[in-house]
């Protein structure tokens, strides 16, 4: 069961993920981290959300995610794919998960800064076919985004929580590009 707000914004069809997927692709492109490879998306009934890194397949739990949770999840999972596609190998789990959580956080921040409900330039398309509510940012979504950011910042699991905190501090200090370069060379976050 779900409350009305959750129900209204929940994703119940894989096609509903496609606009979000394209937004996340544009998010990475905007950071000069283009992910060209088409990554298959699957909705699953329940269980563990994870990416099948060997096939670059991404699983999203059916019904639960709304645009905010699905977007933050996709930003995270697509960073795993980006790391693989760009030759980042044998990273310590807290470094890999940490930087993926950082990308999720950055997406949430950008998303909330945009008025339209989409952090990509919407002027390029006059199409009204995009199924999610584009021109309104509901209070529900804002609260949810704040909660997602809070969860990332206060994660208790060492790999995710500590990884995020270390990674985000490094990104604030050195910038994302420098941190990524450092990880590639040293396989750890800069101090
Ligand atoms: Zn991950």
UniProtKB/TrEMBL annotation:
Signal peptide: none annotated. Pfam families: DA1-like. One of its GO terms (molecular function) is ubiquitin binding. It comes from the Eukaryota. InterPro entries: DA1-like, DA1-like_dom. Residues 58-185 form the Protein DA1-like domain. This is Protein DA1-related 1. It comes from Platanthera zijinensis.
């Amino acid at each position: 069961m779900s409350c009305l707000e959750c129900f209204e914004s929940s994703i119940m069809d894989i096609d509903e993920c496609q606009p979000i997927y394209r937004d996340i692709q544009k998010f990475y492109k905007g950071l000069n981290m283009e992910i060209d490879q088409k990554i298959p998306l699957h909705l699953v009934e329940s269980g563990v959300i994870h990416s099948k890194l060997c096939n670059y397949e991404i699983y999203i739990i059916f019904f639960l995610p709304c645009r905010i949770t699905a977007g933050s999840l996709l930003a995270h999972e697509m960073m795993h794919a980006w790391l693989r596609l760009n030759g980042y190998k044998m990273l310590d789990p807290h470094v890999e998960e940490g930087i993926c959580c950082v990308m999720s956080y950055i997406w949430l921040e950008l998303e909330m800064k945009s008025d339209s409900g989409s952090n990509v330039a919407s002027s390029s398309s006059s199409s009204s076919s995009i199924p999610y509510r584009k021109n309104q940012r509901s209070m529900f979504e804002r609260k949810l985004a704040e909660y997602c950011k809070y969860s990332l910042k206060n994660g208790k699991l060492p790999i995710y929580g500590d990884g995020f905190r270390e990674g985000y501090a490094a990104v604030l200090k050195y910038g994302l590009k420098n941190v990524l370069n450092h990880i590639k060379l040293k396989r750890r976050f800069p101090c």
